[in-house]
Write a structure and sequence with these properties.
Layout: H1 2-11, H2 22-53, H3 59-62, H4 81-96, H5 98-117, H6 123-148
Helix pairs in contact: 2-4, 2-6, 4-5, 4-6
């Protein structure tokens, strides 16, 4: 999904492509890609930091009857890093290109559902990650978007 997002952002042109100014087009696309992915990676990094301070067990530890599809961590369930990253990515894409952002939002929901169904996250972990990811993407968009033009 990450590679597809990079390819889409690089190949998709909202405005008329100028063959006489290829460097301007390239730098504009590079800034857009950097904004979208910095949203995801900053949000994921912040989620990783928060996990060090909010110690919560994963479902398969808290409820012994749950058998996870795969073992992942132990006491670092909140917030979900996957949820944080994918919702930040989907939000940043939505703010740049609405249709693809909606599709990435659907992908984020599927990934999150899979994390709960797999027994590695509680729904509150997913919700916390989603709120964090969307918030970081919105904040970075407010701060950096005007400087990109």
């Amino acid at each position: 999904m990450i590679v597809l997002a990079v390819l889409f952002l690089y190949a998709h042109h909202d405005t008329e492509f100028s063959y006489t100014k290829p460097f301007v087009n390239f730098t504009r696309k590079a800034r857009e890609i950097a904004l979208v992915f910095s949203s995801g990676f900053i949000a994921w990094g912040l989620a990783s930091i928060i996990k060090n301070y909010i110690v919560t067990p994963r479902p398969f530890i808290a409820i012994p009857e749950i058998t996870p599809l795969f073992y992942h961590g132990g006491m670092d369930s909140f917030p979900s890093g996957h949820s944080t990253f994918f919702f930040a990515l989907a939000t940043a894409l939505f703010l740049s290109h609405r249709p693809i952002g909606v599709w990435y939002g659907v992908v984020a929901l599927i990934v999150c559902f899979g994390r709960v169904a797999g027994g590695v996250h509680f729904p509150i972990d997913i919700l916390g990650g989603a709120v964090l990811g969307v918030s970081i993407a919105l904040i970075l968009n407010i701060i950096l978007r005007p400087r990109m033009k």
